[in-house]
Amino acid sequence: MSANTTYSHVTAPTDFVEARGVRYAYRRFGTRIGTPLVLLPHFRAGMDHWDPLVTDGLASNRPVILFDNAGVASSSGETPDTFEAQADHAASFVEALDVPRVDVLGFSIGGYVAQAFTLRYPETVRRLILVGTAPRGGEQEGTHPDVPRVAQDPVLTREDFLFLFFAPSVASQAAGIAFWERRHRRTLDVDPPSSEQTMNAQTAAIGKWREQRGERFADLQQIKQPTLVVNGSHDIMVPTINSYILSQRIPDAQLILYPDSGHGSLFQYAELFVTHASRFLDAAVAFT
Amino acid sequence: MSANTTYSHVTAPTDFVEARGVRYAYRRFGTRIGTPLVLLPHFRAGMDHWDPLVTDGLASNRPVILFDNAGVASSSGETPDTFEAQADHAASFVEALDVPRVDVLGFSIGGYVAQAFTLRYPETVRRLILVGTAPRGGEQEGTHPDVPRVAQDPVLTREDFLFLFFAPSVASQAAGIAFWERRHRRTLDVDPPSSEQTMNAQTAAIGKWREQRGERFADLQQIKQPTLVVNGSHDIMVPTINSYILSQRIPDAQLILYPDSGHGSLFQYAELFVTHASRFLDAAVAFT
User: Fold this and answer.
1) Which of B92, B97, B93, B103 is nearest to B34 (CA)?
2) How many degrees, rounded to 5, is the angle at CA B132 between CA B195 and CA A133?
3) Which ipTM value was assigned to this complex?
4) DSSP designation for A215
5) What is the tens place of the pLDDT at every residue in B158-171?
6) Dihedral in degrees, nearest 10, Cα atoms B209, B214, B219, B220
7) B interface mutation test: which of A272, A273, A274, A281 has the most B CBs within 10 A?
8) What's the rounded Cα separation, in Å, for the pair B285 and B282?
9) CA–CA distance, B175 with B172 (Å, rounded to integer)
10) pTM of the entire structure?
């Protein structure tokens, strides 16, 4: 790690900042200067659910900030049951850090929060990365019928993750096993699991996000930020066609779909994803 | 240009090789070693219809080969009226060059030839790049009604290209004007325009390509090569959804769609496209 970087995914201490009566847990690592990249995670996930190969790769040229939203894992408070309210918490957290402008990477339901955040706080977001996610009122066709049951298992096992996040092929499953090993490299100062309250509130928020409001996909036209949309070729949790729709409707969006992969494509193709995302974030003018 | 490169898009002399009674015109430039990348161009196009920023960018780490298929521009013979027969000519040309294995970049109808070439000569193709193209029996919805008329203008003007290859936005049109300037940098040893015979044969071939044969898209499963599929977000010649379909059906395919762009996205985002394509071609194991 170069001289101007500090900490890594495994070594960054969990820190806390207070706002709106919530004590938000977060970790910051990577370079000291540059626009920080805030990561918003998947259903029930906290700061330990990312892939160090992705977070440290992205952190090689920017500050990376992981945090637990209100009520999630190490943060206090209750998780609200809409992604708009969760986006308001994310904004309070960023404001409390005294960071004027951030890049946002939202993965899965974190991508719903990221869209709401960008729409509600357009001045705060410089660039947006949406991975394995969907617009409000998106397409459900292609969702595997076992997803809701498995995703709500009391404790998610490696086999649950291999089913939910990776394709059935030998190559994708092997990538999933490698991801699972990397994900558990941090063993000290880790998050507790998220509560049932968080799971239930996020489930309720998902239900509302799936409802259309007004003209379908009209909100997406209001996202003016350069946006990188990413998914695996065959996502059984958030069907891949939703990433195509996002890239068609957000005016300045690039789409990347990785081969033979599912919801966790950013973990399956960790190094390639870091290359693509870094190029997107680093360009002085987006898409040059 | 580094010591092991030779010639460039503008300086490469037009050379000729004979096979099956056809004298194929071609130009080779870039590095001396590495898997050559053969480029297959759009409707009516010869060797002068590429963007030097793209071809020289790709040539910085591989040999690049441009050629005129049978009957096209500087090549002798007649243009056949199926893409399968055009693929057979491409194979004869590659064999005559005594190159055992190539990468193939097919753009627009060149992508139809590239698919047929890969299916008919799977041992000859290492990796495949499909830009602004469609599978056999693809989707027509989204094609602008003026396309057939404009595309058959006796002489294609800059304004024709700006309409056909770029999005209506100020940014895309400006990129199109810059492309047009680059495309005309080569002024010596250039191709003559393609003949009416070529245009009519390619038009007939397009008609046949649009017909479904057997199970729709089943052919694509047989493309085993690592494949990069690229298009602009809103292609009015070959609707963008076809690139999504290609990436869904070819087993080992990555999709990239560029923002605010049309059929000529590789020219609009020349440097970014070269970065993405080079990463794809250079990786010892595809997609790592």
Assistant:
1) B103
2) 175
3) 0.96
4) S
5) 999 999 999 999 99
6) 80
7) A272
8) 9
9) 5
10) 0.97
